[in-house]
Amino acid sequence: MPEMDADRFRQTALAIEREVGKVIVGQKALVRDTLITLLAGGNALLEGVPGLGKTLLIRTLAQAIDCHFSRIQFTPDLMPADIVGTMILAEDEEGRRFFRFEPGPIFANLVLADEINRATPKTQSALLEAMQERTVTVAKTIHQLPEPFFVLATQNPIEMEGTYPLPEAQLDRFLFKIDVPFPSVEELVEIAERTTGVEVPEAQPVADGETILAMQRLARGVPIAEHVTEAAARITRATHPDDPGAPESVRRYVRYGASPRGMQALILGGKIHALLDGRFNVALDDLRAVARPALRHRIILNFEAQAEGITPDALIDEVVDAVLASLTVT
């Protein structure tokens, strides 16, 4: 296992971002949030319209860290066995038959679950169980998934016919929910230049699986002051409409706030954001930087918010501003 310190962590992470940037045009926040999720040992849910490079992003990331990549295209007829694998009847050289486990595409380091909301809840649950437990059970036998293990699931927000939206309890299992914005005119021009010419850029390996695991362990060891941990807890509590510290907008528009997993995502994301900024301690601004992807899928809006076009991101910004302002005053 390679030795890892804060300086090597930052240099390796920046090298990964540079290699991904050779293929992915712009989208720096998307690449950064995806890398933070990977280094936190979590899973990410990407939401964006088709054609924005979500598949290309994780394939390129797998090339940059030299890990096994697998893609699963979710469809209504996809079955759990198509993901985790199944037992098949095999025959040895002497003609004796036996059952052998054939691993499914989930047995990879980086797994793209493309359009996860197009599969049935039964199939979605098979993937989410593997994400949570890091194991697969088939025929009473537990199979360990490889490490590092990272699921990047995508969903299309505009085509909802024939889909099965993820329940809130399953959304909560994703460390980050990352919005994929549409490119600017300048970025579209660069995309055209990179992808319609003779040479197509490719990422080169700058890390490996063992390095990623070492970076994950270092990130968890980053110290965090008590007042920063308390701030993460207060931010999480303030997303609940019945909390005394909740802003008026939360009381009006939120039906249910973030779970304790939201606080965990804030802290882990904050630790990695600090390391990427060259610091070995977590500041309040690190929590602010990761608050949106950590909490946006954990806040359930009421009908009034949906009717008035209120977004979770706007409410999260208000919550963070209110909590951090109150801590500064005290």
What can you see in these coordinates?
The chain is α/β, with parallel strands linked by helices. It has two domains: 6-79 and 108-213, P-loop containing nucleotide triphosphate hydrolases (Rossmann fold); 222-329, Magnesium chelatase subunit I, C-Terminal domain (Helicase, Ruva Protein, domain 3, Orthogonal Bundle), CATH 1.10.8. It is built from 14 helices and eleven strands. The protein has a five-stranded parallel beta sheet. The chain has a two-stranded antiparallel sheet with strand order 3-4. Strand 3 and strand 4 (97-103) form a beta hairpin. Helix 9 packs across helix 11 (260-276). The N and C termini lie far apart (45 Å). The model has no long low-confidence stretch (mean pLDDT 85).
Concise overview:
With 330 residues, the chain is of the alpha/beta class. It has helices at 6-23, 28-39, 54-64, 80-84, 121-133, 168-171, 185-195, 209-220, 226-237, 248-253, 260-276, 284-295, 303-308, 312-329; strands at residues 44-47, 69-73, 85-91, 97-103, 110-114, 135-138, 141-144, 150-155, 176-179, 254-256, 300-301.
